[in-house]
Amino acid sequence: MRLGSWPLRVGFAIPGDAETVRTAVSGGYEYDRRLLAGLPEIGVGVELIPLPRAFPTPTPAEINDTTRALAAFEGPLLIDGLGFCAMEAAAAQAVGPRSAALLHHPLYIEPGLTAAQAAAVEAREREVLASAAVIVVTSAATADDAAVRFGLDRAAIHVAPPGVDRPVEWRNPIGSQPKSSPLQLLSVGAVIPRKGYLALIDALARLESEPGTPAWRLMIAGPLDPDPAHVDEVRRRIVDLGLDDRIALLGPLEPEALSQAYRAADVFISAARLEGFGMAAAEAVAHGAPLIAASPAVWAWAPWAARVVSEEGDEALVDSLSATLRPLLHDEHARASAAAASLHGAVALPRWEDTVRAVAAALGALTGENR
Question: d(Cα 78, Cα 139) in Å, to the nearest integer?
Fold first, then answer.
């Protein structure tokens, strides 16, 4: 159902050229692609504005290019969070009154940034968010966090959670699901420090050393190119712990292969403490997989998930991951109960059309349209 025509097209500013936006494998880019495709279907005109991929340290030339690109578009703007990093205060203030800032999660707390980089990113995020007329986030947990971190009015933040593609693929969760041998464990996301893969590998090594642990295999599906040095570290850890026949880094999977991996998973593990929403976890739940999650943003929409609760230290994360995973490895009925909880909770997950309409409503607030 169309919502009518808008008086102006909305410029959607996203880091990367058109090919990058079309093909980049990440939750943030997938969210952006869904908006680019879905908003026109309900009558919202959208024009892609490519920006430099400047995170976390934009050059002066990249800052100038970003400023020019945003200034050249005369209508309302939706600015992806990664674009914040290539904006300075003057640019943010110039376009702020006609801008909606799309915040997937606060970027300055990304692991791996130096103190100076984190401070610069925080300053840019704070400037853009303070200047923006509208702020859109992907979860209520992110809205709460951003309000505290950046001193924003929580009531003024629009929440537009990501959707899932398909109806729930119902499994019979109690007793009739055949036990995999070895048990299939799955984690999905770029191999970067924030995703917690090193802690997950250490936790699995600890469990492997315990008597009676059933055979298992972990597949990690996600891009390997964002941080090659970290990928090398992950590979070394796998080999050093003697788990190279148990853990596979698959790289990004095509949609059907990824869907098959979700369907086959006996347990899905999200070891990242920091997630804006947890799109891969939501897809796993939609496929009926038992869920282990370390991020409060995931717990907010999946309160039934097995929680990995730890302090900031890596060793504490390893302890909690191993303690949370242990009963699901050993107990088929625990896995069946967790799968049933996922299936029950998946009914409430938003669809992508819900996401599009929520963003359209936020843009309506920006332009004065009642959407």
Answer: 17
Return the number of other C-beta atoms located less than 10 Å from residue 135's C-beta.
24
**Contact of 159 with 359, CB cutoff 8 Å:** no
d(CA 12, CA 45): 10
Please, are residues 82 and 110 in contact by the beta-carbon 8 Å criterion? no
pLDDT digits (tens, 9 = 90+) for 23-41: 888 888 999 999 999 999 9
How far is CA 125 from each of CA 20, 102, 116, rounded to the nearest angstrom? Answer: 23, 11, 14
Task: Tell me the HSE value of 118 on the side-chain side, using a 13 A CA sphere.
Answer: 9
| Assessment of whether the complete model's pTM goes beyond 0.70 | yes
CA distances from 172 to 175, 302, 304, 309, 344 (A): 8, 20, 18, 29, 12
Structural domains in the chain, sorted by start: 10-163+351-367 (3.40.50.2000), 183-346 (3.40.50.2000)
Q: Identify the three-state secondary structure at position 102.
A: strand
| Strand duo 183-188 + 157-159: pairing | unpaired
Residue 97 burial (10 A CB sphere; 0-12, 13-18, 19+): exposed
